[in-house]
Amino acid sequence: MDLHVRYEGDDDPDKCSARRLARFDEAHLHRATRTTPPGIVLNPFAEQALSPADSTEQGTRTDRLVALDCSWETAEREAFDLEGIHRSLPFLVAGNPVNFGTPFQLNTVEAFAGALCLLGERDHAERILDHFSWGHTFLELNEEPLERYAACTDSGEVVAVQDDYLQAE
User: Which of 14, 97, 112, 160 has the smallest set of CB atoms within 10 Å of its CB?
Assistant: First the structure.
């Protein structure tokens, strides 16, 4: 699966996981002034959750994941106006040092890794996380939910599993 990033450049370049992915040829960066190719857009404002069913969505490039790399302080609904099918990630906890333990506050590589796991590409998720000293932590923190989400058949089931975690919080 190809990984594409709409890169806004408004965060600390030394901590930017998208830039590191690009340096290792794991993702394609697209500056804000250029067009980002369509695919499955990881959008926290999307009304439908990502599910394994999205890997076979009719009429859409499902071999591409697209993320917006921007600061959480500037992430607004309008910034995610990218071509493709928009899906939100379910409940996952950040493992990176900046947002460690914070639900839903994933950085770009964590968002990609979570999505890849849900779409049945666990090996690809592990490979991109290998470029980060804390990468394994994300998978360890989210092991059970990632397995449960990946076993779902559609978005409704993913949301039901997510609700189990949100009620426990």
Answer: 14
With DSSP H G I counted as helix, E B as strand and the rest as coil, what are the percentages for the chain, rounded to 5? Answer: 40, 15, 45
**Distance separating alpha carbons of residues 138 and 6, to the nearest angstrom:** 22
**101 exposed, middle or buried (CB, 10 Å; 0-12, 13-18, 19+)?**
exposed
Residue 159, Cα to own-chain centre: how many angstroms? 16
Q: What is the pLDDT of residues 85-104, one digit of tens each?
A: 999 999 999 999 999 999 99
On whether the CB atoms of residues 45 and 2 are closer than 8 A, the answer is no
Three-state SS at 33? coil
Sequence letter at residue 169: E
The answer to whether the predicted template modeling score (pTM) of the entire model surpasses 0.85 is yes
List all residues 6 or more positions away from 36 whose beta carbon is below 8 Å from its beta carbon. 4, 5, 6, 30, 66, 82, 83
**DSSP 8-state assignment for residue 7:** E
Q: Which two tokens stand for residue 47?
A: 């009304």
Say how far apart CA 110 and CA 75 lie, in whole Å: 16
Strands annotated E in 8-95: 28-31, 39-42, 64-69, 84-87
Q: What is the pLDDT of residues 28-43, one digit of tens each?
A: 999 876 688 889 999 9
Q: How far apart are CA 13 and CA 82, in angstroms?
A: 23
